């Protein structure tokens, strides 16, 4: 391994560290004050500095050093990581990323910016900036933490680089047994099946519990499967109990004394910082109906033989259902109660957050990973693609030549088919990655644009662990960047305008990713002013896109912004108006096999929804014949297939035809006609109708001549050697080695709405 | 820089000559990836008449252009005797359907005569020049322009 390879590994690690750094800082920004997060951030900068030092990357080292010094102040509680401090730190993380990239690719860095940040960081470290105020609250809390019963272990931990959390134990002491005032406890009780197997009864335990004080109970039925898949011996219910008692935690635990190994039990203090906080809770515990329990529990405990035991279990399940029904009304109150303590007990919340973080860290540490060249994976995927085609060819020739169906060959083929599919899935999974890196990059863009425009913006991301093919992720970054820029620059109003409109001066941009029916849906929502339809319309008229008197729906007007050369910005700013418009965004999404939709509400913001395929390599398709051509229709688009009867076909006007399906009328689209494969419409009765649903809404019945079957096909790019063909999404290679075209259902449906497929091509070519 | 321009500077070069509708044409051998027999192509919707469709070339989708129809002559009726010249045009690989491949010629730049005045703009757009070989006239074809402009846009 030569120096360059080692360096390459260093830079790859840097990327991970930078991601870690950014996500850590964002967590801190969201109010997470877990020392482990601070440590992780510190470690990230520290290891970048260390590696950079080894390679003599002086710029990087010196910046990382200053950054590290400031972070150390945070780590040792000398500097409170408030919003202002974190703003500087996030910017510093950006510069650190720039410096790393510059060190790798030889680019240049905005030196003025980095010098400015060095100054700001140093100022923070010296406690010079007014807003830092040398961490007063921490200083105040520290002495409170010292008289804690066990200061020695805390100090020991400190030496290892951990920071003690200022945490007052007074709360607990006050609520311990001698307390006379009643305290509210949250009890989570989740019986395991063993509990019932040993003849215990959850209802009896709950009844005992109810004797301790005022109790409200909520049955958690999330685990309850459908009736068909229910295992009669399993335990599915859990109870969340809110108990107001003056007996203390020990009394609660003693109720479950005999069952503690056979259930999950979690007893936490629900009240505020002091005893008696329960009184202030907005929750009104609903008295637990004891009569219900007594009625339902005949003395059946102590069942000896198996039958009797089973009966007990069944009864227990029934009892669970009864108590669930009895407490359904409590759910709302419980939800309220759960929220209030979470807000009032900060320390408890952060403690549980730390626990969750630790669990997460443990989980990620548990799965070792390797780094692989993308080229190697691509080669593997190509080979598997060929394997799938070959396997299909083999199956086809066996079917053609096999007269009696030799079972051993057929069985072998079937197994081969299954294996191929499994290999394919596994190989595809290698390429699948969470969208997190792209989303993280967006937070930087939001920060930069917000700074430039003087707007205050918060980026909220959801579902960033949603996995999708690497190529999709790579190609997503560009259109997403552009849309985020747009959302902040055009979408969100200035803080003054927002206040005037009665909104929070801080705008929110929400980026969400989720899986939906075999595709990934990415949503970008802002809470800005929404699309100014009047302006868009006027602009479109000015640009001769629409006639002055055109009657357009709101949706159609919104979609005008996807036209080439369309910008609603009054003046060309530094951020947008660089000649790259939403038309480019739309085209790059389309090139990915995706679709984009807008929905906008005036005054409330806009939502851009992108639906993308999970992978660019394979899809499940229905192979059909149209005008002697073999086509593949993506299975995800098809709702149902039907054989039209003459009575169901209705003519509408000169050329339109509708098919009635269960008393609703659906337009018929002759695929052969729309693709120009034949001059006149085929007789619908002789063909098969595929009922499809497009992303833009609306059903269409696509007429094809015949269905050949269902098959998984390997997607081959048409664009690589040819060009984009309207109405065609891609190509594939069939078992006989011939090329078949994959239909772009949405384009076909769009075309059937009156826009011909042809003009769109000329538009694309012109743009 | 096109493949043709690249070779102009180096002097001598090899060309592959082929026959289309009784005429002879040639292309730079450096652009040719392989020569293969005709296989039925899958028709493309909305394609110009010279675009025969696409075939499978070891897993890649290869568009086939009927050279005769492209030059505005009678469209070919492909048979098993026809051949496809698989050529690299910029980043794309395309197939050119011709009647037959006839020769490999080694020529120097001096052998290439400018395209005669008589040709119309349409023909001139394909031709880099003409060659006189043993009393025959062979037209040197510019592959870049055989594949029409807007279709390369998307690549």
TrEMBL record, chain A:
PTM-bearing positions, type Phosphohistidine: 46
The top EC class, named as a word, is transferase
Give me any GO biological process, just one.
chemotaxis
Q: Name one GO cellular component term.
A: cytoplasm
Annotated Gene Ontology MF terms?
A: ATP binding; phosphorelay sensor kinase activity
For this protein, what is the EC number?
A: 2.7.13.3
Q: Which InterPro entries match?
A: Bact_Chemotaxis_CheA (IPR051315), CheA-like_dim (IPR004105), CheA-like_homodim_sf (IPR037006), CheW-like_dom_sf (IPR036061), CheW-lke_dom (IPR002545), HATPase_C_sf (IPR036890), HATPase_dom (IPR003594), His_kinase_dom (IPR005467)
Q: Which UniProt keywords apply?
A: ATP-binding, Chemotaxis, Kinase, Nucleotide-binding, Phosphoprotein, Transferase, Two-component regulatory system
Q: Where is the CheW-like domain?
A: 618-754
Instruction: Please report the stretch or stretches of sequence annotated as the HPt domain.
Output: 1-103
Q: Where is the Histidine kinase domain?
A: 333-616
Catalytic activities: ATP + protein L-histidine = ADP + protein N-phospho-L-histidine
Mind telling me which SMART domains this protein's record contains? CheW, H-kinase_dim, HATPase_c, HPT
State its role.
Answer: Involved in the transmission of sensory signals from the chemoreceptors to the flagellar motors. CheA is autophosphorylated; it can transfer its phosphate group to either CheB or CheY.
Protein name from the UniProt record: Chemotaxis protein CheA
TrEMBL record, chain B:
Species of origin reads Sinorhizobium fredii (strain USDA 257)
GO terms, biological process: chemotaxis; signal transduction
Naming one, the record's GO cellular component terms include: cytosol
Q: Which Gene3D superfamilies match?
A: CheA-289, Domain 4 (2.40.50.180), SH3 Domains (2.30.30.40)
Q: Which SMART domains match?
A: CheW
PANTHER family on file: CHEMOTAXIS PROTEIN CHEW, CHEMOTAXIS SENSOR HISTIDINE KINASE-RELATED
Query: Could you tell me what this protein is called?
Result: Chemotaxis protein CheW
Q: Which Pfam families match?
A: CheW
Its domain of life reads: Bacteria
The cross-references to CDD domains, in alphabetical order and at most eight, read: CheW
Q: Where is the CheW-like domain?
A: 12-152
What PROSITE patterns does the annotation carry?
Answer: CHEW
InterPro entries assigned: CheW, CheW-like_dom_sf, CheW-lke_dom
